[in-house]
Amino acid sequence: MAAQTDDSGPTIPAAIESAWGLRERPPKGPRPGMSVPAIVDTAVRVADADGLAAVSMSRVAKELGAATMALYRYVGSKDELLMLMVDTGYGPSPGPPPPDTDWRAGLTRWAWAEHEVLRHRGWLLHVPITGPPITPQQLGWMEDGLRCLDGTALGEGEKMSVLLLLTGYVRNEATLTSQVAEGGRAAGVEPSEMMPAYGRTVARLIDPARFPALHRVLTAGVLSQDDDPDDEFAFGLDRILDGIEALVRRRAA
Amino acid sequence: MAAQTDDSGPTIPAAIESAWGLRERPPKGPRPGMSVPAIVDTAVRVADADGLAAVSMSRVAKELGAATMALYRYVGSKDELLMLMVDTGYGPSPGPPPPDTDWRAGLTRWAWAEHEVLRHRGWLLHVPITGPPITPQQLGWMEDGLRCLDGTALGEGEKMSVLLLLTGYVRNEATLTSQVAEGGRAAGVEPSEMMPAYGRTVARLIDPARFPALHRVLTAGVLSQDDDPDDEFAFGLDRILDGIEALVRRRAA
DNA sequence: CCTTTCTGCGTATGTCGTACGCTGTTATGC
DNA sequence: GCATAACAGCGTACGACATACGCAGAAAGG
What we know:
The structure is a homodimer.
Chain A: H1 14-19, H2 36-50, H3 57-64, H4 78-90, H5 103-120, H6 136-148, H7 156-187, H8 194-205, H9 212-219, H10 229-252
Helix pairs in contact in A: 2-3, 2-4, 5-6, 5-7, 7-10
Chain A binds a DNA duplex through helix 3.
């Protein structure tokens, strides 16, 4: 019976372990000239300024005044860097719900907080996600979301499902609005003219006889006026919370 | 007043226009040796077999027995090819709801149909979407979804929002499950051991005092058993439909 | 038949991630 | 004080990729 170390489960990338503070500096060798947080912050700054596509290893290195390959002493791969960028990009969660907040108000605040982050950091949506969250801030968001549901009679699995449902909605809504915005910028259309332009395009393509319902939507002018994206977000959020409320009530009975 | 041609709105890529059948062959020049559909089908086959990352222009060309640059006579860019791949990959919509179907049953069928497509074509989720749908089949799905809501008192804009909400949910759920699956395959873990392994990893990282709610979820064994992903999907779907039902009832009153 | 217009595609360019190995630095064990 | 081990920085090189450009040959109109 050999001594079993605690390395059960799949291997965790070294840089993630250091994000949890589980890594000390080796006793020998030269002092590191950079640090993982400095690299990640620089990468985030590049993404904020020029988008995720601008984040290349050479660009980040140049920004730091270092050579490209120097970065690989700190992060194992670009994917690892991206994972850490997501953690930093989201930032700390909005914190546990204030006392005397019911679950619905708490989750509303939670969802709006993520909405706000994604509105300012659209590139977060373009990071290819490779697995469930294991970075500190990500799990912090989860924790605070779970706490909102503390007073309910939902099972632990149901709480988790509810959070997944909500965060999925927030991400999806943000993806849609940012796509419209980015597509418009690429085509050189004013943001306010985006939806009308899309409506005209669709109107030109479809045959009203084959797409009657879609045609009705178009003639109703739904795509002609640009709604406040926040209204759109609030609409879906209320629908989902209504659905969750039905479940919470049933469990409470 | 110059004659206004119908090229209002942003430019539509040539290959998309040909997907709508709005393009005839030029009268001169050699006969084309390939066709856009043949190229797209080949690309879809490659993605089905080896994932979206394997879809490069050179790989598709090789598969067709042609040179890389020959493809550019048919599609303007790789992005254009991807857009067409999405259209073909989704395939035709499940059709309008059968007669005497209420909106909830219709949308349930609609959502499960997309769920099924995404389960078989996980790569669809990895295609970076650059704008609102303008390809024939995509708008076909939209049309059929709208028809499900024909009998309700919802406004046209609300119908659209409801569909966006649903399709967003379906995509998000599929993204999560496929990420777990892909992440597990990359780490060499059995699919059934994925969630437990994730649970152990999180348990090792978090401090129960700082993440009490998360710790409670872990000790409840939520992540230890792997649920049927279809159950998870059905759970969220019912929540959302409950929320929509509340709205439909309010409008009907 | 000649010109126009198109197809197929070879070549070349620039960008990217990253494997490999050399050079110089630092702290430890003697 | 000195050898040595462990590490930091990074120059070079490789393979993959999207794609701009331009040339050769094919098909149809005049």
